[in-house]
Design a protein that fits this description.
Length: about 325
Protein backbone atom coordinates (compact mmCIF):
# COMPACT_ATOMS: atom_id res chain seq x y z
CA UNK A 1 0.00 0.00 0.00
CA UNK A 2 1.38 3.37 -1.01
CA UNK A 3 0.81 6.01 1.67
CA UNK A 4 -0.04 8.56 -1.03
CA UNK A 5 -2.94 6.58 -2.52
CA UNK A 6 -6.56 7.77 -2.06
CA UNK A 7 -8.36 6.97 1.16
CA UNK A 8 -9.08 3.27 1.67
CA UNK A 9 -12.61 1.86 1.69
CA UNK A 10 -14.69 2.93 4.66
CA UNK A 11 -15.87 0.31 7.14
CA UNK A 12 -19.32 -0.44 8.55
CA UNK A 13 -20.18 1.28 11.82
CA UNK A 14 -20.61 -0.73 15.01
CA UNK A 15 -23.95 0.08 16.62
CA UNK A 16 -25.26 -0.92 20.07
CA UNK A 17 -26.55 -4.46 19.81
CA UNK A 18 -24.20 -5.44 16.98
CA UNK A 19 -22.24 -8.65 17.50
CA UNK A 20 -18.45 -8.72 17.92
CA UNK A 21 -16.28 -11.64 16.78
CA UNK A 22 -13.75 -12.67 19.44
CA UNK A 23 -10.50 -14.24 18.25
CA UNK A 24 -7.29 -15.42 19.90
CA UNK A 25 -4.59 -15.44 17.19
CA UNK A 26 -1.72 -15.15 19.67
CA UNK A 27 -1.65 -16.35 23.31
CA UNK A 28 -4.62 -17.60 25.35
CA UNK A 29 -6.36 -15.62 28.11
CA UNK A 30 -7.05 -16.91 31.59
CA UNK A 31 -10.59 -18.38 31.56
CA UNK A 32 -11.86 -16.31 34.50
CA UNK A 33 -10.47 -13.09 33.04
CA UNK A 34 -12.04 -13.93 29.69
CA UNK A 35 -15.46 -14.61 31.21
CA UNK A 36 -15.38 -11.33 33.12
CA UNK A 37 -14.28 -9.40 30.04
CA UNK A 38 -17.06 -10.85 27.89
CA UNK A 39 -19.58 -9.78 30.53
CA UNK A 40 -18.12 -6.25 30.53
CA UNK A 41 -18.42 -6.09 26.74
CA UNK A 42 -22.06 -7.16 27.05
CA UNK A 43 -22.63 -4.33 29.54
CA UNK A 44 -21.34 -1.90 26.90
CA UNK A 45 -24.13 -3.17 24.65
CA UNK A 46 -22.23 -5.58 22.42
CA UNK A 47 -22.93 -9.32 22.37
CA UNK A 48 -20.05 -11.48 21.18
CA UNK A 49 -19.39 -14.83 19.60
CA UNK A 50 -16.45 -17.23 19.46
CA UNK A 51 -15.66 -19.88 16.86
CA UNK A 52 -13.79 -22.21 19.19
CA UNK A 53 -12.47 -22.34 22.75
CA UNK A 54 -10.27 -19.24 22.82
CA UNK A 55 -8.87 -20.25 26.21
CA UNK A 56 -7.45 -23.48 24.78
CA UNK A 57 -3.67 -23.59 24.77
CA UNK A 58 -0.89 -25.26 22.85
CA UNK A 59 2.02 -24.22 25.04
CA UNK A 60 2.32 -20.45 24.80
CA UNK A 61 -0.14 -20.31 21.89
CA UNK A 62 -3.94 -20.16 21.93
CA UNK A 63 -4.22 -23.40 20.00
CA UNK A 64 -2.34 -24.76 17.00
CA UNK A 65 -1.77 -22.67 13.89
CA UNK A 66 -4.53 -24.34 11.88
CA UNK A 67 -7.20 -23.65 14.48
CA UNK A 68 -6.17 -20.02 14.88
CA UNK A 69 -6.17 -19.45 11.11
CA UNK A 70 -9.58 -21.11 10.77
CA UNK A 71 -10.88 -18.88 13.54
CA UNK A 72 -9.72 -15.72 11.76
CA UNK A 73 -11.25 -16.89 8.49
CA UNK A 74 -14.56 -17.61 10.22
CA UNK A 75 -14.55 -14.14 11.80
CA UNK A 76 -13.71 -12.45 8.49
CA UNK A 77 -16.48 -14.39 6.70
CA UNK A 78 -19.18 -13.99 9.34
CA UNK A 79 -22.06 -11.90 7.94
CA UNK A 80 -23.52 -11.40 11.41
CA UNK A 81 -20.59 -9.49 12.97
CA UNK A 82 -19.32 -5.96 12.37
CA UNK A 83 -15.99 -6.08 14.21
CA UNK A 84 -13.22 -8.57 15.02
CA UNK A 85 -11.67 -8.11 18.47
CA UNK A 86 -8.52 -9.84 19.68
CA UNK A 87 -8.92 -11.43 23.10
CA UNK A 88 -5.29 -10.76 24.03
CA UNK A 89 -1.79 -10.37 22.61
CA UNK A 90 1.26 -12.34 23.68
CA UNK A 91 2.86 -14.19 20.78
CA UNK A 92 1.85 -16.16 17.73
CA UNK A 93 0.33 -13.93 15.03
CA UNK A 94 3.51 -13.84 12.96
CA UNK A 95 3.35 -17.62 12.51
CA UNK A 96 0.02 -17.27 10.68
CA UNK A 97 0.48 -14.37 8.27
CA UNK A 98 1.58 -16.27 5.18
CA UNK A 99 -1.45 -18.58 5.45
CA UNK A 100 -4.22 -16.09 6.21
CA UNK A 101 -6.57 -15.46 3.27
CA UNK A 102 -6.92 -11.69 3.51
CA UNK A 103 -9.23 -11.60 0.48
CA UNK A 104 -11.94 -12.77 2.88
CA UNK A 105 -11.67 -9.47 4.76
CA UNK A 106 -11.80 -7.54 1.48
CA UNK A 107 -15.05 -9.29 0.55
CA UNK A 108 -16.63 -8.40 3.88
CA UNK A 109 -14.74 -5.39 5.32
CA UNK A 110 -14.94 -4.86 9.08
CA UNK A 111 -12.77 -3.40 11.82
CA UNK A 112 -10.06 -5.61 13.29
CA UNK A 113 -9.00 -4.41 16.74
CA UNK A 114 -6.10 -5.23 19.05
CA UNK A 115 -2.52 -4.33 19.94
CA UNK A 116 0.81 -5.78 21.10
CA UNK A 117 1.36 -8.97 19.04
CA UNK A 118 -1.71 -7.99 17.00
CA UNK A 119 0.57 -5.34 15.45
CA UNK A 120 1.60 -8.08 13.00
CA UNK A 121 -1.99 -8.66 11.92
CA UNK A 122 -2.57 -4.93 11.46
CA UNK A 123 0.53 -4.62 9.27
CA UNK A 124 -0.54 -7.56 7.14
CA UNK A 125 -4.04 -6.14 6.72
CA UNK A 126 -2.56 -2.85 5.52
CA UNK A 127 -0.23 -4.48 3.02
CA UNK A 128 -2.63 -7.12 1.75
CA UNK A 129 -5.92 -5.18 1.70
CA UNK A 130 -5.36 -1.44 2.21
CA UNK A 131 -8.10 -1.46 4.86
CA UNK A 132 -7.95 0.50 8.09
CA UNK A 133 -7.75 -1.42 11.38
CA UNK A 134 -7.64 -0.21 14.97
CA UNK A 135 -4.55 -0.35 17.15
CA UNK A 136 -6.26 -0.41 20.52
CA UNK A 137 -7.22 -2.39 23.60
CA UNK A 138 -7.72 -6.12 23.38
CA UNK A 139 -10.72 -7.62 25.16
CA UNK A 140 -9.00 -8.93 28.29
CA UNK A 141 -7.39 -6.14 30.28
CA UNK A 142 -8.74 -3.57 27.83
CA UNK A 143 -12.29 -3.20 26.57
CA UNK A 144 -13.37 -5.77 29.12
CA UNK A 145 -11.91 -3.68 31.96
CA UNK A 146 -14.52 -1.67 33.88
CA UNK A 147 -11.98 0.40 35.82
CA UNK A 148 -11.95 4.19 35.70
CA UNK A 149 -8.44 4.09 34.22
CA UNK A 150 -9.77 2.43 31.08
CA UNK A 151 -12.62 4.87 30.46
CA UNK A 152 -10.73 7.16 28.01
CA UNK A 153 -9.77 4.24 25.77
CA UNK A 154 -13.28 2.77 25.86
CA UNK A 155 -14.83 6.13 25.02
CA UNK A 156 -12.49 6.68 22.06
CA UNK A 157 -12.98 3.10 20.84
CA UNK A 158 -16.73 3.56 20.83
CA UNK A 159 -16.44 6.93 19.09
CA UNK A 160 -14.19 5.57 16.34
CA UNK A 161 -16.11 2.41 15.51
CA UNK A 162 -19.48 4.18 15.60
CA UNK A 163 -18.40 7.05 13.36
CA UNK A 164 -18.71 9.78 15.98
CA UNK A 165 -15.11 10.79 15.28
CA UNK A 166 -14.77 12.18 11.76
CA UNK A 167 -12.20 14.14 9.78
CA UNK A 168 -10.53 16.77 11.98
CA UNK A 169 -11.27 15.01 15.27
CA UNK A 170 -8.57 15.11 17.94
CA UNK A 171 -7.22 11.59 18.53
CA UNK A 172 -5.56 12.57 21.77
CA UNK A 173 -8.09 14.71 23.66
CA UNK A 174 -6.88 17.12 26.33
CA UNK A 175 -8.18 14.85 29.09
CA UNK A 176 -5.60 12.23 28.07
CA UNK A 177 -2.85 14.51 26.78
CA UNK A 178 -1.17 15.72 29.97
CA UNK A 179 2.21 14.17 29.10
CA UNK A 180 2.45 15.06 25.42
CA UNK A 181 5.90 16.38 24.52
CA UNK A 182 7.19 18.00 21.35
CA UNK A 183 10.46 16.34 20.31
CA UNK A 184 10.66 17.95 16.87
CA UNK A 185 8.12 20.65 15.91
CA UNK A 186 6.23 20.70 12.65
CA UNK A 187 3.11 19.43 10.90
CA UNK A 188 2.83 16.31 8.75
CA UNK A 189 0.11 14.16 7.27
CA UNK A 190 0.34 10.51 6.25
CA UNK A 191 -0.90 6.98 6.74
CA UNK A 192 -0.48 5.67 10.27
CA UNK A 193 1.68 2.54 10.58
CA UNK A 194 3.44 0.66 13.37
CA UNK A 195 2.48 -0.24 16.90
CA UNK A 196 4.65 -2.54 18.97
CA UNK A 197 8.33 -1.91 18.20
CA UNK A 198 9.56 -5.49 18.69
CA UNK A 199 6.77 -6.99 16.59
CA UNK A 200 7.32 -4.37 13.90
CA UNK A 201 11.00 -5.33 13.70
CA UNK A 202 10.09 -8.98 13.19
CA UNK A 203 8.23 -8.00 10.00
CA UNK A 204 11.19 -6.31 8.31
CA UNK A 205 12.08 -8.09 5.09
CA UNK A 206 8.75 -9.94 4.90
CA UNK A 207 5.81 -9.25 2.56
CA UNK A 208 4.00 -7.85 5.60
CA UNK A 209 6.48 -5.09 6.41
CA UNK A 210 4.58 -1.78 6.54
CA UNK A 211 5.15 0.81 3.85
CA UNK A 212 7.24 3.46 5.60
CA UNK A 213 7.27 5.92 2.70
CA UNK A 214 5.66 9.22 3.78
CA UNK A 215 4.01 7.45 6.72
CA UNK A 216 3.42 8.47 10.33
CA UNK A 217 5.05 5.83 12.55
CA UNK A 218 3.56 4.85 15.92
CA UNK A 219 5.93 3.21 18.43
CA UNK A 220 5.25 1.58 21.81
CA UNK A 221 6.58 -1.42 23.73
CA UNK A 222 6.85 -3.13 27.09
CA UNK A 223 9.43 -5.28 28.82
CA UNK A 224 12.30 -4.01 26.69
CA UNK A 225 15.42 -2.62 28.38
CA UNK A 226 17.27 0.35 26.85
CA UNK A 227 19.90 -1.73 25.06
CA UNK A 228 17.19 -3.84 23.41
CA UNK A 229 15.25 -0.73 22.39
CA UNK A 230 18.52 0.61 20.97
CA UNK A 231 18.95 -2.60 18.95
CA UNK A 232 15.40 -2.43 17.59
CA UNK A 233 15.68 1.23 16.58
CA UNK A 234 19.11 0.62 15.04
CA UNK A 235 17.58 -2.07 12.86
CA UNK A 236 14.91 0.34 11.60
CA UNK A 237 17.51 3.02 10.94
CA UNK A 238 20.08 0.86 9.17
CA UNK A 239 17.34 -0.73 7.05
CA UNK A 240 16.69 2.77 5.73
CA UNK A 241 13.13 2.82 7.03
CA UNK A 242 13.22 5.70 9.51
CA UNK A 243 14.53 8.05 6.82
CA UNK A 244 11.37 7.49 4.74
CA UNK A 245 8.93 8.73 7.39
CA UNK A 246 6.81 11.88 7.41
CA UNK A 247 6.46 11.91 11.20
CA UNK A 248 6.62 9.86 14.39
CA UNK A 249 4.30 9.32 17.37
CA UNK A 250 5.84 7.86 20.52
CA UNK A 251 3.60 6.03 22.96
CA UNK A 252 4.42 4.36 26.27
CA UNK A 253 7.55 2.27 26.84
CA UNK A 254 6.74 0.46 30.07
CA UNK A 255 8.59 -2.03 32.29
CA UNK A 256 11.98 -1.11 30.88
CA UNK A 257 13.96 -2.67 33.73
CA UNK A 258 14.50 -1.99 37.41
CA UNK A 259 17.94 -0.49 36.77
CA UNK A 260 16.77 1.88 34.03
CA UNK A 261 17.16 5.47 35.20
CA UNK A 262 14.37 8.00 34.81
CA UNK A 263 14.45 9.56 31.37
CA UNK A 264 16.87 7.00 29.89
CA UNK A 265 14.43 5.58 27.36
CA UNK A 266 13.10 9.02 26.51
CA UNK A 267 16.65 10.23 25.78
CA UNK A 268 17.38 7.13 23.70
CA UNK A 269 14.29 7.61 21.57
CA UNK A 270 15.11 11.29 21.08
CA UNK A 271 18.62 10.33 19.97
CA UNK A 272 17.24 8.22 17.13
CA UNK A 273 14.25 10.34 16.15
CA UNK A 274 15.47 13.96 16.35
CA UNK A 275 17.95 13.63 13.44
CA UNK A 276 15.13 12.55 11.12
CA UNK A 277 14.05 16.18 10.79
CA UNK A 278 10.34 15.31 10.74
CA UNK A 279 7.66 16.15 13.32
CA UNK A 280 7.93 13.92 16.39
CA UNK A 281 5.35 13.94 19.19
CA UNK A 282 6.02 11.86 22.31
CA UNK A 283 4.15 10.94 25.47
CA UNK A 284 1.00 9.61 23.84
CA UNK A 285 -1.16 7.46 26.15
CA UNK A 286 -0.83 4.40 23.93
CA UNK A 287 0.69 1.07 24.89
CA UNK A 288 0.72 -1.57 27.60
CA UNK A 289 -0.89 0.56 30.32
CA UNK A 290 -4.07 2.57 30.82
CA UNK A 291 -5.22 4.52 28.99
CA UNK A 292 -4.37 2.86 25.69
CA UNK A 293 -6.12 5.12 23.20
CA UNK A 294 -7.19 3.37 19.97
CA UNK A 295 -5.83 4.72 16.69
CA UNK A 296 -6.64 3.92 13.02
CA UNK A 297 -3.70 2.07 11.49
CA UNK A 298 -3.74 2.53 7.74
CA UNK A 299 -5.85 5.64 8.18
CA UNK A 300 -4.82 9.13 7.17
CA UNK A 301 -3.77 11.20 10.20
CA UNK A 302 -2.18 14.57 10.85
CA UNK A 303 0.47 15.24 13.47
CA UNK A 304 0.95 18.81 14.69
CA UNK A 305 3.93 18.38 16.96
CA UNK A 306 4.35 22.13 17.44
CA UNK A 307 0.95 22.42 19.12
CA UNK A 308 0.97 18.90 20.55
CA UNK A 309 -2.06 17.74 18.58
CA UNK A 310 -2.85 14.58 16.65
CA UNK A 311 -5.85 14.57 14.31
CA UNK A 312 -7.90 12.18 12.21
CA UNK A 313 -7.58 13.27 8.57
CA UNK A 314 -10.23 11.05 6.97
CA UNK A 315 -13.63 9.58 7.74
CA UNK A 316 -13.51 5.88 8.62
CA UNK A 317 -17.16 4.84 8.53
CA UNK A 318 -19.03 4.13 5.29
CA UNK A 319 -22.14 6.15 6.17
CA UNK A 320 -20.29 9.27 7.36
CA UNK A 321 -20.76 12.38 5.24
CA UNK A 322 -18.05 12.84 2.64
Amino acid sequence: MNNRLPNPARLPALRPGDTVSLVAPASPPQPAAFTNAVAALERLGYPSKCYRDVCASAGYLAGDDASRIAELHAAFDDPDTKLVLAVRGGYGVGRLLDRIEFKRLVRRPKFVVGYSDITALHAAIQRQTGLVSLHGPNLVGGLGDDSAASLPERDQWLALVSGKLATGADLCPSSAAANLRTVTPGVAQGRLIGGNLAVLNALIGTPFQPDFEAAILLLEDTGETPYRIDRLLTQLRTAGLLAQLAGVLVGAFSDTGAETSAGAVEALLDEFLTPLGVPVLAGLPIGHEHPNLPLPLGGLVEIDASNRRFLLAQDLIEDQAA
